[in-house]
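look at this stuff:

>
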Amino acid sequence: MSSITLPFTYTDGQVLTAAELNACDTTIYNDYNGNITDFNIAGSAAITLTKLGLNPGSQAFNRMTTGNKTWSSGLTTDTQPGVTMTSDGWLEFGPGGTTAPDVYLYRSAANTLKLAVPGGGTPSLDFNSATLVNLPIIGVASGGTGLGTVAAGALLLGNTTSAMNVLAVAANHSVVVSNGSTYTTILPLTTASGGTGITTTPTNGQIPIGNGTNYVAAAISNGVGTVVNNGAGTISIDNVAIAAIQGLRCSISSTLPVPADGSNTTLYAIPATSASKFIALFNGTKWLLDEWTTAPSVAVPATTNTLYDFYATDSSGAPAVGLNAWSGSTPPTRGTQDGIIWTGDNTKRLIAVVSTNGTSGTVPDTAAERYVWNVNNQVPRNCNAFISGGYTASSIGTALRATNSNVTNGQGRFAFVCGQPIAVTAQLNATVSANVGRWEAALAIDSVTVADASCPTTGLPGVVWSVPCGVSTHLSAQVATAGVHYCQMLEAGGIAGASVTTLQIGCYSSLMM
């Protein structure tokens, strides 16, 4: 409490009452028993530390030695309570008792605070996962790196001093060593040091290639049958030699590459042999080697006498097929990719040329109408035409005409499709039982009035010496254009009004298709 004010004062000879005397005594008694404050202690009291009884038994507060453990207290300039040690003393911590203090915190030098263990030893700090901020850079000697910052991806490289250097790769592929402020460039490692010695920036596809002395950045070159594709960080090599692989045939059969004579409204791609189940197809970028597993097919459009390109294209590693229609006798847009013919675009490999006949949506493959011509894996296919049982014709003029005026496929002629110019050979045979006037026979390609130059007319004289007798002539012609063609039997009279009776007449050929 503050200063004491006596409730009563006395004069000499005054008679005191018990109440007055007790009031003064009580005031002093109450202040002394637990109510003494700083006001009641003189500033010059100089009470010793041992009499304060702060943490009894601790040297920090119970021993007074000159220059040691002198404390003052008050407020710092930022108004936060604080305690100041004005000497090079230390704080001691421990459980007390017989074990005494076991760790010290003291000022070891100017601006230096040190943690120590009495009698030596290594102290430790437990921050309990606390985040430390505003710490000074710790040098190598104290277990740090000596660096304030390190770039992402950099490595630390020690040297002979107490500093650490940063090892990083510069833009010119050299190695940069930095101690935080000074940068030193180490040239790229030579081959003798386990490096490449390359200092240039490589372009797409370049790789280190030895030249007998060092390495150079170079790209792989195209080779025979190969094309190298260089990209950013990638190299791919296409084997264009596989482009020649094509083991399929167009067929009217779903199982046979060379079918029996017939026709169909669906066309199939069938391996030419059991071992030829692969076809190379271009996907717009490179050649793929597709394996045939099931017969891909395409329906024939509902047209008559229309030519089509039958093609194959890649479909997820397997061949698919389709048709591109001609415009009359003009094929669709075509081109080549590495020497391989495509139709429409370079992803559609030309497999065959086909044609419908007079029946809507039907492609025939018969001796009378060979309308399936394959680009690859060709086999000989018979073509022929017969006038069954022969015929008798009179008043035959001297100009050539279709034999017995017959222009029906399979009778007076046979028809065929080709996808390119081809050579055609054919044979005409006739057995004649009677004739009046000279009778002549010939063959023609795509004509009913003019015999082919390679097939001179041949026949019987005006009087038959013996019957029956045979007539034969041979044709070897060149078909100059792709499309539908026919080989026609022709006849003429040596004189006007000639007549002939044949027992049989026909023409024959074998074409690669």
